[in-house]
Amino acid sequence: MKYKLIAMDMDGTLLNSQKQVTEYTKDVLRRASEKGIKLVICTGRIFTSAKSYARIIGTKAPIIASNGAYIREKDRNEVIYEKYIKKETLLDIIKVTREWGFYPHIYTTDTIYSEKLIHSSLNYSKWNETVPEDERINIQIVDSLEDVVEKEGENFLKVVVMALEDEVEKLQELKKYIRDNMDVSIFSSYMNNFEIMDKEVSKGNALKRLAEFFDIDREAIVCFGDNENDKTMFEFAGFPIAMGNAEEEIKKIAAYVTDTNDNDGVAKAIEELILRE
Protein backbone atom coordinates (compact mmCIF):
# COMPACT_ATOMS: atom_id res chain seq x y z
CA MET A 1 0.00 0.00 0.00
CA LYS A 2 1.32 3.40 -0.94
CA TYR A 3 0.37 5.84 1.80
CA LYS A 4 -0.80 9.25 0.60
CA LEU A 5 -1.62 11.17 3.78
CA ILE A 6 -0.15 11.29 7.29
CA ALA A 7 -2.30 12.91 10.00
CA MET A 8 -0.46 13.88 13.17
CA ASP A 9 -1.69 14.97 16.56
CA MET A 10 0.54 17.63 18.10
CA ASP A 11 0.86 17.62 21.89
CA GLY A 12 2.28 14.34 23.12
CA THR A 13 2.81 13.20 19.53
CA LEU A 14 4.57 15.44 17.02
CA LEU A 15 5.83 17.80 19.74
CA ASN A 16 8.23 16.68 22.44
CA SER A 17 7.85 17.67 26.09
CA GLN A 18 9.48 21.03 25.33
CA LYS A 19 6.79 21.68 22.69
CA GLN A 20 9.39 21.45 19.95
CA VAL A 21 9.81 19.56 16.68
CA THR A 22 13.33 18.15 16.47
CA GLU A 23 15.57 18.63 13.45
CA TYR A 24 15.51 14.89 12.82
CA THR A 25 11.71 14.89 12.72
CA LYS A 26 11.67 17.92 10.41
CA ASP A 27 14.05 16.12 8.04
CA VAL A 28 11.96 12.95 7.96
CA LEU A 29 8.78 14.93 7.33
CA ARG A 30 10.50 16.85 4.55
CA ARG A 31 11.48 13.58 2.86
CA ALA A 32 7.94 12.24 3.22
CA SER A 33 6.58 15.41 1.64
CA GLU A 34 9.03 15.09 -1.23
CA LYS A 35 7.54 11.66 -1.94
CA GLY A 36 4.17 13.34 -2.44
CA ILE A 37 2.69 12.40 0.93
CA LYS A 38 0.37 15.02 2.39
CA LEU A 39 1.28 15.99 5.97
CA VAL A 40 -1.75 17.02 8.01
CA ILE A 41 -1.73 18.44 11.53
CA CYS A 42 -4.81 17.20 13.37
CA THR A 43 -5.01 18.89 16.75
CA GLY A 44 -7.21 20.19 19.50
CA ARG A 45 -5.31 23.45 19.33
CA ILE A 46 -6.71 26.67 17.94
CA PHE A 47 -5.99 27.18 14.21
CA THR A 48 -3.53 30.04 14.72
CA SER A 49 -1.36 27.93 17.03
CA ALA A 50 -1.49 24.91 14.70
CA LYS A 51 -0.58 27.15 11.76
CA SER A 52 2.63 28.17 13.50
CA TYR A 53 3.79 24.55 13.80
CA ALA A 54 2.64 23.77 10.27
CA ARG A 55 5.01 26.49 9.12
CA ILE A 56 7.84 24.95 11.14
CA ILE A 57 7.46 21.52 9.55
CA GLY A 58 6.76 22.98 6.11
CA THR A 59 3.46 21.24 5.41
CA LYS A 60 1.27 22.72 2.68
CA ALA A 61 -1.78 20.58 3.47
CA PRO A 62 -4.83 21.96 5.26
CA ILE A 63 -4.91 21.98 9.07
CA ILE A 64 -7.49 20.18 11.19
CA ALA A 65 -7.91 22.35 14.30
CA SER A 66 -10.12 22.47 17.41
CA ASN A 67 -10.50 18.66 17.47
CA GLY A 68 -12.01 18.66 14.00
CA ALA A 69 -14.38 21.61 14.29
CA TYR A 70 -12.34 23.61 11.78
CA ILE A 71 -10.41 22.63 8.65
CA ARG A 72 -8.63 25.34 6.72
CA GLU A 73 -5.84 25.80 4.22
CA LYS A 74 -2.67 26.97 5.95
CA ASP A 75 -1.59 29.60 3.41
CA ARG A 76 -4.97 30.69 2.06
CA ASN A 77 -8.17 31.87 3.67
CA GLU A 78 -10.05 28.86 2.35
CA VAL A 79 -12.17 27.08 4.94
CA ILE A 80 -12.91 23.47 4.04
CA TYR A 81 -15.15 22.74 7.02
CA GLU A 82 -16.40 24.53 10.13
CA LYS A 83 -18.87 23.51 12.81
CA TYR A 84 -19.85 25.88 15.60
CA ILE A 85 -21.52 25.18 18.94
CA LYS A 86 -25.17 26.19 19.09
CA LYS A 87 -25.69 29.38 21.08
CA GLU A 88 -28.07 27.96 23.67
CA THR A 89 -25.86 24.92 24.19
CA LEU A 90 -22.84 27.16 24.71
CA LEU A 91 -24.67 29.27 27.29
CA ASP A 92 -25.69 26.10 29.15
CA ILE A 93 -22.09 24.85 29.17
CA ILE A 94 -20.81 28.15 30.55
CA LYS A 95 -23.46 28.14 33.27
CA VAL A 96 -22.86 24.55 34.39
CA THR A 97 -19.08 24.85 34.28
CA ARG A 98 -19.15 27.99 36.42
CA GLU A 99 -21.54 26.35 38.90
CA TRP A 100 -18.99 23.55 39.36
CA GLY A 101 -16.32 26.12 40.20
CA PHE A 102 -14.30 26.19 36.97
CA TYR A 103 -13.37 28.93 34.51
CA PRO A 104 -14.46 27.96 30.99
CA HIS A 105 -12.57 29.32 27.98
CA ILE A 106 -14.49 29.76 24.74
CA TYR A 107 -12.70 29.70 21.37
CA THR A 108 -13.28 31.19 17.94
CA THR A 109 -10.85 30.44 15.10
CA ASP A 110 -8.28 32.91 16.42
CA THR A 111 -9.49 34.24 19.79
CA ILE A 112 -9.84 32.90 23.33
CA TYR A 113 -12.31 34.49 25.73
CA SER A 114 -12.12 33.94 29.47
CA GLU A 115 -13.15 35.71 32.65
CA LYS A 116 -9.73 35.12 34.18
CA LEU A 117 -6.18 34.80 32.86
CA ILE A 118 -5.69 31.19 33.91
CA HIS A 119 -4.90 27.79 32.39
CA SER A 120 -5.08 27.87 28.59
CA SER A 121 -5.40 31.66 28.29
CA LEU A 122 -2.35 32.06 30.53
CA ASN A 123 -0.44 29.41 28.55
CA TYR A 124 -1.24 31.11 25.25
CA SER A 125 -0.28 34.53 26.62
CA LYS A 126 3.19 33.07 27.29
CA TRP A 127 3.15 31.47 23.84
CA ASN A 128 2.49 34.90 22.30
CA GLU A 129 5.81 36.12 23.65
CA THR A 130 7.71 33.55 21.54
CA VAL A 131 6.09 33.78 18.10
CA PRO A 132 5.79 36.38 15.29
CA GLU A 133 2.95 38.86 15.61
CA ASP A 134 0.84 37.25 12.88
CA GLU A 135 0.91 33.91 14.75
CA ARG A 136 -0.18 35.24 18.14
CA ILE A 137 -3.47 34.24 19.73
CA ASN A 138 -5.94 37.01 20.47
CA ILE A 139 -6.75 36.65 24.20
CA GLN A 140 -9.69 38.56 25.61
CA ILE A 141 -10.31 38.67 29.37
CA VAL A 142 -13.91 39.76 29.82
CA ASP A 143 -16.39 40.44 32.60
CA SER A 144 -19.06 38.10 31.25
CA LEU A 145 -18.79 35.24 28.77
CA GLU A 146 -22.55 35.34 28.36
CA ASP A 147 -22.33 38.92 27.10
CA VAL A 148 -19.68 37.85 24.58
CA VAL A 149 -21.86 35.00 23.31
CA GLU A 150 -24.88 37.29 23.01
CA LYS A 151 -22.79 39.70 20.98
CA GLU A 152 -20.91 37.21 18.80
CA GLY A 153 -23.67 34.61 18.36
CA GLU A 154 -22.80 31.17 16.99
CA ASN A 155 -19.16 31.92 16.33
CA PHE A 156 -17.50 29.54 18.80
CA LEU A 157 -15.83 26.26 17.91
CA LYS A 158 -15.16 24.81 21.35
CA VAL A 159 -15.09 25.25 25.10
CA VAL A 160 -12.00 24.28 27.11
CA VAL A 161 -12.14 23.52 30.82
CA MET A 162 -8.95 22.89 32.79
CA ALA A 163 -8.17 22.08 36.42
CA LEU A 164 -5.39 22.37 38.94
CA GLU A 165 -3.86 19.11 40.19
CA ASP A 166 -6.13 18.88 43.24
CA GLU A 167 -9.24 19.52 41.10
CA VAL A 168 -8.76 16.73 38.53
CA GLU A 169 -11.21 14.28 40.13
CA LYS A 170 -13.91 16.93 40.29
CA LEU A 171 -13.18 17.91 36.70
CA GLN A 172 -13.69 14.34 35.54
CA GLU A 173 -17.02 14.25 37.38
CA LEU A 174 -18.08 17.40 35.54
CA LYS A 175 -16.99 15.87 32.24
CA LYS A 176 -19.19 12.84 32.90
CA TYR A 177 -22.11 15.08 33.90
CA ILE A 178 -21.88 17.07 30.67
CA ARG A 179 -21.47 13.94 28.56
CA ASP A 180 -24.54 12.37 30.18
CA ASN A 181 -26.76 15.45 30.08
CA MET A 182 -25.82 17.45 27.00
CA ASP A 183 -25.88 16.53 23.32
CA VAL A 184 -22.26 17.46 22.61
CA SER A 185 -18.91 15.97 21.64
CA ILE A 186 -16.46 15.95 24.54
CA PHE A 187 -12.82 14.78 24.64
CA SER A 188 -9.73 15.05 26.80
CA SER A 189 -6.13 15.40 25.72
CA TYR A 190 -4.93 15.02 29.34
CA MET A 191 -6.62 14.20 32.64
CA ASN A 192 -6.52 17.86 33.71
CA ASN A 193 -8.72 19.13 30.87
CA PHE A 194 -11.60 18.47 28.54
CA GLU A 195 -12.90 20.16 25.41
CA ILE A 196 -16.50 20.47 24.25
CA MET A 197 -17.59 20.82 20.64
CA ASP A 198 -20.76 20.36 18.61
CA LYS A 199 -22.00 16.78 18.70
CA GLU A 200 -20.91 16.14 15.09
CA VAL A 201 -17.29 17.14 15.70
CA SER A 202 -14.38 14.73 16.08
CA LYS A 203 -10.93 14.26 14.61
CA GLY A 204 -12.19 11.14 12.85
CA ASN A 205 -15.03 12.98 11.11
CA ALA A 206 -12.67 15.76 10.10
CA LEU A 207 -10.13 13.32 8.69
CA LYS A 208 -12.94 11.65 6.73
CA ARG A 209 -13.95 15.00 5.25
CA LEU A 210 -10.36 15.78 4.31
CA ALA A 211 -9.95 12.35 2.70
CA GLU A 212 -13.03 13.06 0.60
CA PHE A 213 -11.68 16.52 -0.25
CA PHE A 214 -8.46 14.97 -1.60
CA ASP A 215 -10.17 11.81 -2.93
CA ILE A 216 -7.88 9.60 -0.83
CA ASP A 217 -8.98 6.16 0.32
CA ARG A 218 -8.92 5.67 4.10
CA GLU A 219 -6.57 2.68 3.68
CA ALA A 220 -3.96 5.09 2.29
CA ILE A 221 -4.02 7.20 5.46
CA VAL A 222 -1.60 6.92 8.39
CA CYS A 223 -2.33 8.70 11.66
CA PHE A 224 -0.37 9.30 14.86
CA GLY A 225 -1.83 10.02 18.30
CA ASP A 226 -1.57 9.50 22.01
CA ASN A 227 -4.83 10.25 23.79
CA GLU A 228 -8.61 10.04 23.97
CA ASN A 229 -9.28 12.79 21.45
CA ASP A 230 -7.32 10.77 18.85
CA LYS A 231 -9.51 7.66 19.16
CA THR A 232 -11.96 8.53 16.36
CA MET A 233 -9.01 9.32 14.06
CA PHE A 234 -7.60 5.86 14.83
CA GLU A 235 -10.94 4.28 14.00
CA PHE A 236 -11.00 5.94 10.57
CA ALA A 237 -7.40 5.81 9.33
CA GLY A 238 -6.13 2.71 7.55
CA PHE A 239 -2.92 2.56 9.59
CA PRO A 240 -3.18 4.14 13.07
CA ILE A 241 0.10 4.45 14.99
CA ALA A 242 0.18 5.03 18.75
CA MET A 243 3.00 6.83 20.47
CA GLY A 244 5.03 4.96 23.08
CA ASN A 245 3.68 7.44 25.64
CA ALA A 246 0.06 6.94 24.50
CA GLU A 247 -2.83 5.95 26.75
CA GLU A 248 -3.33 2.18 26.87
CA GLU A 249 -6.77 2.51 25.27
CA ILE A 250 -5.14 4.10 22.23
CA LYS A 251 -2.37 1.49 22.04
CA LYS A 252 -4.96 -1.29 22.01
CA ILE A 253 -6.61 -0.02 18.82
CA ALA A 254 -3.37 0.89 17.04
CA ALA A 255 -1.87 -1.09 14.18
CA TYR A 256 1.59 -0.21 15.46
CA VAL A 257 3.18 1.36 18.54
CA THR A 258 6.20 3.57 17.94
CA ASP A 259 8.66 5.27 20.29
CA THR A 260 7.67 8.16 22.58
CA ASN A 261 7.24 11.79 21.57
CA ASP A 262 10.50 12.60 23.39
CA ASN A 263 12.34 10.00 21.28
CA ASP A 264 11.15 11.08 17.81
CA GLY A 265 8.47 8.39 17.64
CA VAL A 266 6.70 9.98 14.66
CA ALA A 267 9.89 10.30 12.62
CA LYS A 268 11.10 6.78 13.46
CA ALA A 269 7.84 5.18 12.36
CA ILE A 270 7.66 7.18 9.12
CA GLU A 271 11.24 6.34 8.26
CA GLU A 272 10.90 2.65 9.09
CA LEU A 273 7.41 1.91 7.77
CA ILE A 274 6.85 4.41 4.96
CA LEU A 275 10.06 5.87 3.54
CA ARG A 276 11.67 2.44 3.23
CA GLU A 277 8.79 0.95 1.26
Written overview of the protein:
The protein is an alpha/beta fold. It folds into two domains: about 5-80 and about 200-275, HAD superfamily/HAD-like (Rossmann fold); about 85-200, Hypothetical Protein, Haloacid Dehalogenase-like Hydrolase, Chain: A, domain 2 (2-Layer Sandwich), CATH 3.30.1240.10. It has ten helices and 14 strands. The strands form three sheets. Strands 8-7-6-9-11-10 form a six-stranded mixed beta sheet, sandwiched between helices. A five-stranded parallel beta sheet has the order 2-1-12-13-14. A three-stranded antiparallel beta sheet has the order 3-4-5, with helices on both faces. Helix 3 (about 85-100) runs antiparallel to helix 5 (about 145-150). It is globular and about 55 Å long. The termini are close together.
Treating each run of at least 4 consecutive H or I residues as one helix, how many helices? 10
- First-residue to last-residue Cα separation: 9 Å
Number of domains: 2
Helix content: 25-40%
Overall 3D shape: globular
In the CATH hierarchy, what is the class of the largest domain?
Alpha Beta
Protein structure class? alpha/beta
Main beta sheet, described?
6 strands, mixed
Strand order of the largest sheet: 8-7-6-9-11-10
Low-confidence stretches: none
CATH architecture of the largest domain: 3-Layer(aba) Sandwich
Q: Strand fraction band?
A: 15-25%
Question: How many strands appear in the DSSP assignment?
Answer: 14
- Cα-atom radius of gyration: 18 Å
CATH fold description of the largest domain: Rossmann fold
